[in-house]
Amino acid sequence: GEGSKRFPLAISTPENQNANNQNWLIFQALYYGALIAMVLYNFLVGLGTRMYVYFSYVGFLLGFALFQLALHGLGNFIIWPTFNWFTIPALFIGMAFLGIMSHLFTIQLLGIEKDYKYCRYFNRYLIIIACFTSPILLIWQGYKFAILCYILLGIIPWGITLIGYGILAFKRKEEVAIWY
Fold first, then answer.
1. Per-residue DSSP letters for 1-48?
2. Maximum Cα–Cα distance across the chain
3. pTM (global) more than 0.85
4. Which of the chain's termini has less CB crowding within 10 Å, N or C?
């Protein structure tokens, strides 16, 4: 009910607070540095081998990095400080890249793109939801409604489909399905 609220507070000296902030920024720099290293490595491997699955993974990593930067506010703080309006669209752009590129990565990795025309239809569906429906809802109804619709129309079907692809590849006894 209406009882008192308890919030865990810690009083710190300015020196300790600065040290904590510095440690957090160092961790974030290492985290995003590792993501950049993975992007560059997979891009170069994709160029060398001419296997498109690496480029799908690069797109997935870039979408993941953009989503994380927007979600935690670090992008607004460091990457795009003069474009404050870009943070909320960056969430949707990052989620769109996550969905589309992970879907492409999965069907390329499991080798099912030639067998199932459903894969192409679902990828088109993801592109429509990510690139058209979400921005229209964001402008028309606002952030909360747009994110809810994106979760219901995009993320939940995307997750179910990826699990289904893994099960199908496992039933076909694809070697990579064990690792997927």
1. -------------HHHHHHHHHHHHHHHHHHHHHHHHHHHHHHHHHHH
2. 64
3. no
4. N
